[in-house]
Here is the input.
Amino acid sequence: MTTTAITNIAGLVTNDPALGDGSPLGLIENAAVVIDGETVAWVGPAAKAPAADTVFDAAGRAVIPGFVDSHSHLVFAGDRTAEFNARMSGRSYSAGGIRTTVAATRAATDAELEANLLRHLDEARRQGTTTFETKSGYGLTVADEARALRIAAAHTEEVTYLGAHIVSPDYAEDPAGYVDLVTGEMLTACAPYARWVDVFCEKGAFDGDQARAILTAGAAAGLIPRVHANQLSYGPGVQLAVELEAASADHCTHLTDADVDALAQAADTTVATLLPGAEFSTRAQWPDARRLIDAGATVALSTDCNPGSSYTSSMPFCIALAVRDMRMTPDEALWSATAGGARALRRSDVGTVTPGARADLALLDAPSHVHLAYRPGVPLVSAVWQRGVRAV
Amino acid sequence: MTTTAITNIAGLVTNDPALGDGSPLGLIENAAVVIDGETVAWVGPAAKAPAADTVFDAAGRAVIPGFVDSHSHLVFAGDRTAEFNARMSGRSYSAGGIRTTVAATRAATDAELEANLLRHLDEARRQGTTTFETKSGYGLTVADEARALRIAAAHTEEVTYLGAHIVSPDYAEDPAGYVDLVTGEMLTACAPYARWVDVFCEKGAFDGDQARAILTAGAAAGLIPRVHANQLSYGPGVQLAVELEAASADHCTHLTDADVDALAQAADTTVATLLPGAEFSTRAQWPDARRLIDAGATVALSTDCNPGSSYTSSMPFCIALAVRDMRMTPDEALWSATAGGARALRRSDVGTVTPGARADLALLDAPSHVHLAYRPGVPLVSAVWQRGVRAV
Here is the structure.
């Protein structure tokens, strides 16, 4: 295998406290990274870097682990620009929100869905994302959910079965019947393609008992739970996630003290995944990241990329919001967008730049990772390596 | 001269109400633009486009006028990452704010300042900015202010003399003496390079009487006034800008009813230029764009790009903030970032896509300009023409 040395890195974030300055970011100044095949082979001071087959001069810029976007909804078709425009312009809009996307997704061909997914993945990669999770949830029939997951599984290892996104409009008069479908025939059809099972636990979607049934059935089929929890209102989602040892409770916008305590106690098991793009695009209140971190919870940042409530694929944008509006420090936000996302996906091979880790790296057109918050909106990612291969 | 036709434009923003749908944006669907040399020669439905020497297929994407960024501070050296990091992390920081930049700028060579300017201009251009204003204000000596303007004037027509950014540290005990310098020897040295004169009218910088003296002296030397007004607190800046027929009152964060009325009455003369990047990066309150627009004021959007309080060069980011946090509609925000900026610079040749206008255009990787707010943080600008030449 050929080796590549990335040298002359002004600031390297390793996320390995054993390396560098001893902080959670494991920051090394004047650093180098040597990649061997798909893997990081060596990390340390540039002056001590071993020889490599090829050399890339970072020219005094920063290198970070590729972003781990642990929450997105990218298997969809259709467009909701008019709905967004009306909402932000204070005009009423009669069309059907998520149902618009469900109808368009069902009507799309496999090729259309895959092309749309690939377009968004390429866009995310250009912004530094090297690992992403994505979900079903716009099909809501056995066949449409299964094909969404099949298409997703061709492009990522992190596939989530979200038949329980909303109660299918086809079951508007029989939500219990839809839960039976989601925990029965639909689960059987979907489980082979998925690693995770998820549910939108919220008033108007699925209540605590329904969510428990869905997650428990998914777990029995070999899927690991994650939960859309406490986004729009207080509710049982976070407590359920912790009780069922879900990998993450996502959104966490409306939390009681007991919810925060539960997430802190479960810091090694259940990650609080915050999705500030959703609050930005719906003008909602911000999750209180400071409170969660200070209590000891493990926090991840993710885009929630979807055409309705958070149509951003930009992890740098989420970092800038997290710092400005959720009171995370620039260091915490970077960690949560990389190592935090890896924790939320229970992955130890990504989210760090340490020997043995997958060689997923982003080069910033800036001397420090702090610039991701200091320079909001500016496209700073200038090169990306994915599994050791230059992808951007 | 060669002609280029840009065809198959899903949504073309012209900012010419006489074209298209009759709205202020003059939106045309299924449009084409023909460029002849540096100028727009024809605009209309794609089906009626005249023949051209070369054809660019927009493939169903949107085209907008290039952004007109009417307020930036790009002649500087040095870095304030540590200060930003401390501020956002809730840590105290003892270094000197703007004085840090003044010291670094004075110490820089001409070549260093020019390289830094060009790097930021290139970065802005990749994000769709085709016209920009920039200022002095980090030199604060006769020689350093004049060289800042000389360097700026080599790269833009819109150069602003801001010797009155703060009272120079060299005159800490003699602010009146500094005003004498700014209105005397420094003005004489700077006026040949500048079109505009500006002052930071604010507690701790220059009061109303000082600001009036500086702007009046600048006007007598042939410069047109613009004012940093009402950013950090209520004050006389906006009223002074209107009274002196300044081209713009910039920031407008703290406005009385009388200030709003004055800007509405002066809508044809003095533009209210809002700079949400500054409020974002300092966690300050948002300017009330809705109140200004509803009163009848003319509103521009700009980046305020500078290393201390708003280190973004991204007009798309400012649009997303304007919609989310300042309650502008996506249409209003787009207008303010293009035609509004042109009004703030008293330019009729930019900010529109209409026959005779300068051929400054941005192609978005999206079907509609609304996506600039709908898809926050995502780098959507995929091609830029400046004076008819493909620049990105």
Notes: The interface with chain B takes residues 79, 81, 84-85, 88-90, 123, 126-127, 277, 280-281, 283, 311-314, 316-318, 320, 323-324, 327, 329-331, 365, 367-368, 370-371, 373-379 of chain A (CB under 8 Å). The domain at 68-344 of chain A is CATH 3.20.20.140 (TIM Barrel). The longest helix of chain A spans residues 110-126. The first strand of chain A starts at residue 3 and ends at 12.
